[in-house]
Amino acid sequence: MPLFLSKSFLFLPTRPFSSISNFTSYMMSSFSPPKPKTRLRGVVFDMDGTLTVPVIDFPAMYRAVLGEDEYKRVKAENPTGIDILHHIESWSPDLQRHAYQTIADFERQGLDRLQIMPGTAQLCGFLDSKKIRRGLITRNIKEAVDLFHNRFGITFSPALSREFRPYKPDPGPLLHICSTWEVQPNEVMMVGDSLKDDTDVVFNTFR
């Protein structure tokens, strides 16, 4: 369900897009944005569930990291979604290392099944034709980003993975990309499938 968000470029359709392909069709045909004060100079994408088809079993991963009882408790306290990376930040170094290894194991299991989301190549071609930059922010590992670039031949730059700290929804990654591009945050659009991560990173940027 891609969402495209920016302080100046906040265009929410009457219903969410079910895929990046539908978003591409919208951008290329019926998309008629209001005239902003500044022009769109770059689009920053989430990866999992936006540029790629979801393949990671997140509930199973959370159970493996937290344990069944703790998973149920944390899920009940966070009905909009579990921020597992934030949750384990307060753990001891040994527990953190084990948790990160478990998360990485689940992510690597998904690499062989990595699939590009239909419509992604067409959308990137459209952005290139308009000379609009393409960047990427993901909480996945760099290995997954590199595999995406190599397997599908589509490159995003900068492409910030979990190794870049702080990770979203902190505004740091988005501000870093804006600085690299030498553009203002209100000239950039964020596209993602998570109201929690991809919306918050935009609004945190403008606090």
Descriptive report:
- The chain is of the alpha/beta class and 207 residues long.
- The protein is built from nine helices and five strands, in the order βαβαααααβαβαβα.
- It has a five-stranded mixed sheet.
- 31% of the residues are buried.
- It comes from Citrus sinensis (Sweet orange).
- This is Haloacid dehalogenase-like hydrolase domain-containing protein.
Please outline the helices and strands:
Blueprint: E1 3-5, H1 20-30, E2 42-45, H2 58-66, H3 68-77, H4 84-87, H5 93-109, H6 120-129, E3 133-137, H7 142-152, E4 159-160, H8 172-181, E5 188-192, H9 195-205
Parallel strand pairs: 2-3, 2-5, 3-4
Antiparallel strand pairs: 1-5
Helix pairs in contact: 1-6, 2-3, 2-5
Listing every helix as H and every strand as E from the N terminus to the C terminus, the arrangement reads EHEHHHHHEHEHEH
Mean pLDDT, nearest integer?
Answer: 84
Number of helices: 9
Which spans have pLDDT < 50 for at least 5 consecutive residues? 3-14
Work out the strand percent: 5-15%
Radius of gyration: 17 Å
Structural class: alpha/beta
Question: What's the end-to-end separation, in Å?
Answer: 25 Å
Q: How are the strands ordered across the major sheet?
A: 1-5-2-3-4
What percentage of residues falls in helices of 4 or more residues?
Answer: 40-55%
